Amino acid sequence: MDSNEVIFLTPCFSHTIWGGNKLRTVFGYDESGDDIGECWGVSAHPSGDCTVRGGAYDGKKLSELWKEAPEIFGSFDSDRFPLLIKIIDARDDLSIQVHPDDEYAGVHENGSLGKTECWYILDCDEDATIVVGHNAKDKEELKDMIKSGRWNDFIRLLPIRKGDFIQIDPGTVHAIKGGTLLLETQQSSDITYRVYDYDRLQNGLPRQLHIDQSIDVIVTPAKSAEESVIHRTDDSKNRVIELYSCKYYTVSRMSVDGEAVIDISGAPFTIMSVTEGEGSVNGNNIKKGDHFILPHGTDEAKAAGNMELVFSRP
Ligand code: ZN
Questions:
Q1: Which of 192, 137, 153, 194 has its CA nearest to residue 170?
Q2: CA of 92 relative to ligand 1 center, distance in Å
C-alpha cells in the first residue's frame, strides 16, 4: 500500500430550519430535501463522523482512523481529530450566537473543547451582510442591550462579498445571514450559546436561548469592523494564498489553472476541499465538493486542472 495515499471522505449532512438546496444544486451532493443546512466534509465529531471512500481504509470512520493509524496524522497530540470542515448553505438567517473558549467549555461543558471558527465566503447575494461583533462598549451595556432586547442597537451587520474571509474567535457574536454559501474551518466542537433567534418558532416553540452563558463569554468591546472582515485582494493563479493562521489552524487557498505544485511539507497533515471546478491531485481525479486528507509525509500536492482548492492544516 502507498503510505501517501490520498484519503477521500464521504460527507455527512444536516437538515435545519434555515438550510436550502444549494448543497445539491450548486455542489452536486446526492442529498434530498430543501432544508440542507450543512455538509460536514471532514469531521470525526460524534454528531457527524465521515466515512473513508476507497483505498486501503475504505469504509472506516474518520474517528476510527484517528485512533488506529495515528501515523497518518503525524501522531498529532490530541485525543480527537481536531478540526471540522463544513460547507454551509444559509437560505434563511441563522440565530445570533457565540462560542466559549477551551477554558470556559472545559469547566462548564463537561471538558468539551471551545470553538474557534472561520468563514470563507464561497458565494453570496448582492448586498449580502453578516453579523460579526456587536455595538456594546462594555459588559454593562451588553447586559442592558441583551436583557431589554435592544437587538437593533446590539447587532453589528457588516457587508460581505464572494472571497471574503472572517475569523470568529471565541466570545465573538456572529451569525450567517440568508443568501450566503461558505466554507467553515473550525475546532471540532459543538458548543454554541444562542443569544437571539429573531423570535422565530420551530414546531410552535422558540428554540432555547443561553443568555447567561452568552453574557459570560461575549468579549467587549468587539474587534473593529475593519479588522473583522478580510476582503479578497489577490486573484493570482497557482500561488498559495494564506487566508488566516491561528493556534488551531492555518487556512489557505489556491486557484489552480493548468499545473501547480503545492508545498505541504512541515504540516502534520493537510485537509483539502475543492470549492470550484475540477482536476486532479497527486494523480487522483477531483471535483467541486470533494474533501480529502493528504497524510503525514506527503511533501507536495501536484495539482492540475481548473479549480479552486481551500486547505486547512492544524
Ligand atoms: Zn459559530
A1: 192
A2: 15
128-168, pLDDT tens digit by residue?
999 999 999 999 999 999 999 999 999 999 999 999 999 99
pLDDT value at residue 112? 86
Residues with Cβ within 8 Å of 114's Cβ and at least 6 positions away in sequence, in order, are 99, 100, 101, 102, 103, 104, 105, 106, 170, 187, 189, 191
Q: How far is the CA of 81 from the centre of ligand 1 (A)?
A: 19
Based on the residue annotation, tell me whether 194 is a catalytic residue of this protein. yes
Measured in Å, residue 265 CA sits from the centre of ligand 1 at 30
Other C-beta atoms closer than 10 Å to the C-beta of 124 total 23
Q: Which of 91, 194, 253, 313 is catalytic?
A: 194
- Residue pLDDT, tens place only, 218-237: 999 999 999 999 999 888 99
